[in-house]
Design goal:
alpha+beta, two-stranded parallel ribbon, globular
Length: 75
């Protein structure tokens, strides 16, 4: 059994989305604001990615995980 088997067998998935531009993103945010649609997410820093992956494998995830891209910036 590999580390990814619980993802596959547990019907879990890892997804991402490419940036589609500021105008499209703003349109989506405006739409959500009009309909009072709020995100259900949990964000984490890049240095927490291993712990987040382990939680996902264990099924200890209630919301979508987001990587805080600001944590990618190095001083």
């Amino acid at each position: 059994m590999t580390q990814l088997d619980p993802l596959i067998l547990g019907r879990r998935r890892i997804t991402g989305s490419p940036s589609v531009g500021i105008a499209h993103t703003q349109e989506m945010l405006d739409f959500c604001a009009r309909l009072h649609i709020l995100p259900e997410t949990e964000s984490f820093r890049i240095d927490q990615i291993s712990q987040s992956f382990d939680r996902m494998v264990r099924g200890d995830v209630r919301y979508r995980f987001l990587i805080d891209v600001a944590s990618l910036v190095q001083d």
